[in-house]
Amino acid sequence: MEKPHIAVVPSAGFTHLVPILEFSKLLLHLHPQFQVTCLIPSLGSPPSSSKAYLQTLPSNIHPFFLPPVSKEKVPPDAHLTIQIQQTVTHSLPYIKHELKSLCSRTHVVALVVDVFAHQALDFGRELNLLSYVYLPLSALVLSLYFNSSKLDEILSSEHRDPQEPIVFPGCVPLYDRDLPQPCHDRSSLAYKQFLERAKRCLLADGILVNSFLELESDTLRSLKVQFGGKPTIYPVGPIIQSLSIGQENGLECLTWLDKQQPKSVIYVSFGSGGTLSQEQLDELAYGLELSNQKFLWVVRAPSSIASAAYLGTRIEDPLQYLPQGFLERTRERGLVVPSWAPQVQVLAHSSTGGFLCHCGWNSVLESVVQGVPILAWPLFAEQSLNAAEITDGLEVALRPKASKGGLVERNEIAKVVRDLMEGEQGTKIRDRMEHLKNAAANALKEDGSSIKAMSEFAAYLRDT
Ligand code: UDP
């Protein structure tokens, strides 16, 4: 008899595709009685990184590209989350069609959608399927979703003192700068979509969150107490890629790391699409130079929009934007690679001792899994929230201070890099990160918290 299907709907962008499929892989590895069909929306033709990744999937996961949404339908200068959300909106008729067709041909037990594909939850209900949201983000983000009406009330209040932090049960106090990007302009479409996303997630039968009990215990417990376990929350993480996708610069990075001393290198990267302004790029280059530490830097061409490269790559050579003579002066101490590095392997390498990171949640979890302390440098989306959590909450990161204009200057960069790599503070942070690394490994053991959560989820699908 054919195995029952779980229909999975990611949203646009490499980092909204890979996490939900990595979750699917783990689920099927633990519970092979199911199979997964994945309906993939994309803006324009799918990126090569996504296609390369799909080649690596096991045979019980069936990827299916929906007709791509024409780039003309989504304003290129719109906020990143709007672009992602609109791509899903335009794909809805195809999602519905394929889902109905799948249900007519096979036994589908559940629908699992990426948080940005929440509109597809309606089809799950129409087709009488159990419907879940996969949140490739932290429990802190989930708490913000659950408390979004309260958050909106606080942000709308005329009497609010912006210096006062916002405190939700079990969460690190949040200052204005920590809030996700859409919250900074309450009249914006991005903010309206944020509220809508938050509200609709709560209508799902359950939420699978890429976190683990030991990492965000207070937040997860408080959510349960506050909202009485409805919808059910399954902390199933950390779910990360076992190997980075994309061969670019791989051998060069790893061979270079092989020649360095243990824990001597700071890895510098801003995720799959983060970019800096030219001025900030210069300061970072001089800061790394002044720090006198070894570094491996993934450089991207500058842009005034921090998420410029997120939904597609620019092909120009980013190294031409570095300060004159930088590469020659730092040749003995640093390796600079254009646009992409095999991050998971780099973080796992024994020479890597720190990570200057844009605080995308996948990067944070990858660092936790390898026990690598972080320099938090958030750029966009919910990255500032993650930065607050790992800096003020978990105390496994340092954060450079920006000057009034928002620029992080070279001396500050040099100082925090040194503090992290060889200072007393860095040692304490490293110890705490080591503790989290062990906790992450335990969560994924046979009797670990995340594996149990995954089994509860699978049992519910089987028995309902
Ligand atoms: N990544 C990589 N090489 C790079 C940059 C990023 O392999 O040079 C991977 C990284 O390992 C992570 C993902 O891309 O899995 C980035 O996800 P994250 O959530 O950290 O940030 P986002 O790209 O969504 O901003």
From TrEMBL:
The keyword Glycosyltransferase applies. It comes from Crotalaria pallida. Keywords: Glycosyltransferase, Transferase. GO terms for molecular function: UDP-glycosyltransferase activity. It comes from the Eukaryota. Pfam families: UDPGT. This is Glycosyltransferase. The keyword Transport does not apply. Its EC number is 2.4.1.-. InterPro entries: UDP_glucos_trans, UDP_glycos_trans_CS. Belongs to the UDP-glycosyltransferase family. Coiled coil: none annotated.
